[in-house]
Structure formats: C-alpha cells, structure tokens
Amino acid sequence: MANLMSFAFLLFAQNEVPKPDAEATGPNYQLMMLMIFGIMAMFFFMTMPQKREKKRWNDMVEALKKNDRVLMSCGIIGKVHVVHREKNEIVIKFDDDSNTKMTFSLAAVARILDQTKDNSDEK
C-alpha cells in the first residue's frame, strides 16, 4: 500500500516549476489608476448639470418678491402675495376679486413668468 502511495506521489509530482513569462510579471497599476480617474471624471461631469440647475433655481427663489407671477409645479399660475423664507412657504394669490390665496412650499415653484405678459393682460 505504501508503494502505491509513493507511486501516486511520483506520478503527480513535477520536476520543474513553471516559470512566469517576462511580460506577465504582475498587475498594471498605471492602467488601474487611469480607470479609477476616468470613472471619477465621469461622475464629476454627470453631476455638473444638476448642480448648475440647483443653483439657478436657488437664485430664482431668492429673487421672488411680491406681485411676481409664478408657475407652480402643479400647473397653477398666480401672483406672489407673501414669501416666508424661514418657513420655506409662499402664499399665492389667484383671484383679485375674491382675494383667493393658497400656501405652498417654496420647492413647488417651477418658474417665474415674464412680467411683460402680466402688463399686457391689464391693458
């Protein structure tokens, strides 16, 4: 039985250890770093338009004042009556005759409409 085990050992044993190729010496760290920087640059360029749009919206909300015509995200158009920046609320006036007002979150403001349209409606 011992002879059989030693025969199996000799059968599977190799005399020479395979030597690695000269070209395949290890991982290419320069390529890995280039890929990591490429992915980081891709994420940077993907988030730039979002940051730009957020800054534009913040500037628009900061510029809100009484009697500005605004379009809300739900599609309602009205005039700004009061802006409560500390509460993040805005009061919109819809009808001058019945003095109808509603309170919205500042986040619901979609855009400020042109004042020229408002002046042409009054004429």
Please explain how this structure is put together.
By secondary structure, the protein is α+β, with helices and mostly antiparallel strands. It has a domain of 59 residues: SH3 type barrels. The longest helix has 34 residues. The chain is rod-shaped and about 110 Å long.
In short:
The protein is of the alpha+beta class. Helix content is 43%, strand content 24%. Strand 3 and strand 4 form a beta hairpin.
Number of strands: 5
The CATH architecture name of the domain at 64-122 reads Roll
Rg from C-alpha positions?
Answer: 35 Å
Number of helices: 3
Indicate the low-confidence ranges by residue numbers. Answer: none
- Give the integer mean of the pLDDT values: 81
Order of helices and strands: HHEEEEEH
The CATH class of the domain at 64-122, by name, is: Mainly Beta
Provide the descriptors you would attach to this structure in a database record:
123 residues, SH3 type barrels
Write the layout of secondary structure elements.
Blueprint: H1 2-12, H2 29-62, E1 69-72, E2 77-84, E3 89-95, E4 100-105, E5 109-112, H3 115-122
Antiparallel strand pairs: 1-2, 1-5, 2-3, 3-4
